[in-house]
Amino acid sequence: MGAAVPFGLRVDDALAARMQQGLVEVESLLLETVDSEESLLTEASQHLVTAGGKRFRPMLVLLAAQFGDPSASGVIPSAVVVELTHLATLYHDDVMDEAPLRRGQASANSRWTNTVAILTGDYLFARASDLLADLGTDAVRIQARTFARLVRGQIQETVGVPGDGDPLKHYLQVVADKTASLIATSGQFGAMMAGAPSSVVDTLTSACEKIGVAFQLSDDILDVASESDQSGKTPGTDLREGIRTLPMLHVLAGDDPADARLRELLSGPIPDDGDHAEALALLRAHPAMARAKADTRRWAEDARAELLTLPDVPARDALASLCDYVVSRTG
């Protein structure tokens, strides 16, 4: 078994070499695509491209392409399309969140202005569309529908739960639309561009969506459970901002009198450092954390069950190992 690769993938040496070469080609086309005659636009576009992202979505495109012809002409461009789309949403997210940092450095909105950040995100969407034009109308339609889901997820998160709505159902829908939709499209594009059978394309699309949900759930758990020296992030960020993620929703759905103080703390943002530390300690010790981990495990196992119906090629084992990684990273 082969070389070390991100996300705990189990791959043999041959697949590792193909993946590494594919990612080199993705990186080259990515930089070429964001180049502009306007120097500021090029600089702002490259700001996140070169900031050290893990290229999770392009990696899924390349893995899914192993179920057909991975050297097909549309594979690398489609991998760049999903990464450009992802990066564009980060520029816009940072403006909405007024985030000062992204990937350990100044965000585009803080380095330049909100206007520059928004326009840069728009530019990346435009460049993705330009690449798509050469990949056929089906690809354009898939991307358009994915983009619609991304926007819908952001709107739903911004507006919040309707008065008579189920908070947990609302949260999972936001996760599916805002995060998992583009991960699903990554699997779909890779298999489709490589000419895999339609049944394989459909299975990879569905399984990758479930992996996407599990990834976001595990991120939300880590926001509570991890220490900053483990994750590189400040723990309890969602908690401080009053963003209700899976562990918090499980607490709020209960009525145990012993949880009254924690439910009070979770009723809104927690700007006070003392209250924040108290809430974080109470939440970490609460059975809701185990319930959230069990939910994540179910999503990952459902994805694995679908993946195991695919042809037995090395990429299937690599994708299945992603399911293990998602579960193990929650502790």
TrEMBL record:
Q: Which UniProt keywords apply?
A: Magnesium, Metal-binding, Transferase
The coenzyme or cofactor needed here is: Mg(2+)
InterPro entries on file: Isoprenoid_synthase_dom_sf, Polyprenyl_synt, Polyprenyl_synt_CS
Q: Which PROSITE patterns match?
A: POLYPRENYL_SYNTHASE_2
Family that this chain belongs to: Belongs to the FPP/GGPP synthase family.
Sorted alphabetically, which PANTHER family does this protein's record hold?
ALL TRANS-POLYPRENYL-DIPHOSPHATE SYNTHASE PDSS1, GERANYLGERANYL PYROPHOSPHATE SYNTHASE
Q: What is the recorded name of this protein? A: Polyprenyl synthetase family protein
Q: Which organism is it from?
A: Actinocorallia aurantiaca
